[in-house]
Amino acid sequence: ADPRGEEWGLRPPVNSEEIIVPHSKPDLLRRPDLLILRSLCPSELCFSLIFHFFIYVRSAYILKQDSLHPSYRSFLNKHGGKSQVILQGVRDLACGNSVANLDAIENHYKSNGVDIKLDPQMKVPCSIVHENQGCGAHFISFLIQAYKRALPVYLPVYLVPALIVHRQGLLKRPNIILAKGLLGTARSSLFLSVYCSSAWLWTCLLFRLFKRCNIPMVALGTFPTGLALAIEKKSRRIEISLYCLARALESFVTCMVDVGYLPRSKNLKRADVVIFSMATAIIMHCYAIERDVFRSKYLNVLDWVFGVPLPPYETTPRKNRRSDSS
Question: Is residue 128 part of a domain?
Fold first, then answer.
């Protein structure tokens, strides 16, 4: 049965003959729109490459925050859990400079009730990152704090769709749907908290292992943090990866412009609007005549917003070609 069937009260189940099969190569060659949409849904191999943009995002958060979008930078600063004076100290050491704001860092910790004296000749920034705590103890305490910060972020992400999109199913099976929402909230919050806390843990371990702090060490230290994405549901991994990919590319282009490898252009300031318009056009085109290329949860949302179309949607061009060939 179609997973988009009666359980959400949207449409009756389809026959087994209508089960959707992946696009064949001839289909994709004949239909450029399907090829574009397929390219927007990478395979597992592409996913494994995309998630490594977590490395760049985390490195940019530490080394060059001004290359990140302001709203995303604010999000990272909140969940990164470190003051700007601490990040500046780590940045100075990573760039091969002496830490110029030791007094500001000491005053920051003193305002939080921790009296610490930093060594001006330090080679690794562990004492800057987590004052008198050990690296392992800091990981545990930071993980707990990060989880508390992540819960308010993901609670509406799961519960609002349950209340709006799945409102009919919520009346029939409230315990099951609410339990799934709470489980998803807990799981996604764990992902975000593990990602943030493990980033500091891995960088500390590398700093202590090689007894130095530089830009390659920061990049290598953020590399294993992307493994935290395995905590998330498979269906959400690619969404998060693509979002980070967009932010990483935006930051990368900004850095290339700053160092002079790319020309500055004021004509591309609203390029995001152009890209959004093109993406919306592709989505609405496929929604109108190739509905079976969508995942069920996205199709449910589109149907809820625009209304379920009349029965002709069941005979899309791709289904017609399949029936003709049989």
Answer: no
pLDDT for 209-262, tens place per residue?
999 899 988 888 888 888 888 899 887 888 888 788 888 888 888 888 888 888
* CB atoms near residue 220 (< 10 Å): 16
How do residues 151-208 score in pLDDT, each as one tens digit? 999 999 988 878 877 777 778 888 888 898 899 999 999 999 999 999 999 999 999 9
Q: Residue 305: inside a domain, yes or no?
A: yes
Q: For 3, which DSSP code?
A: T
What residues have CB less than 8 Å from 304, skipping those under 6 apart? Answer: 10, 164, 165
CA distances, 130 to each of 8, 18, 86, 222, 278 (Å): 48, 58, 9, 17, 46
Single out the residue of 183, 244, 170, 193 nearest to residue 79, CA to CA: 193
Contacts of residue 137, Cβ cutoff 8 Å, sequence gap at least 6: 130
Exposure of 295 by Cβ count < 10 A (0-12 exposed, 13-18 middle, 19+ buried)? exposed
In a domain, 280, yes or no: yes
Q: How many domains does the chain have?
A: 1
* Domain assignment of residue 232, yes or no: no
**pTM score, whole prediction:** 0.73
Distance CA 185, CA 32 (A): 38
Long-range contacts of 18-22 (CB under 8 A, 24+ apart): 18/314, 18/319, 20/292, 21/322
Q: Domain limits at 41?
A: 1-8+23-45+265-326
Given pLDDT bands bounded at 50, 70 and 90, which one contains residue 85?
Answer: very high
Neighbour count for residue 93 (Cβ, 10 Å) = 21
CA angle 321, 311, 6 (to 5 degrees): 110
Residue 101 is which amino acid? N
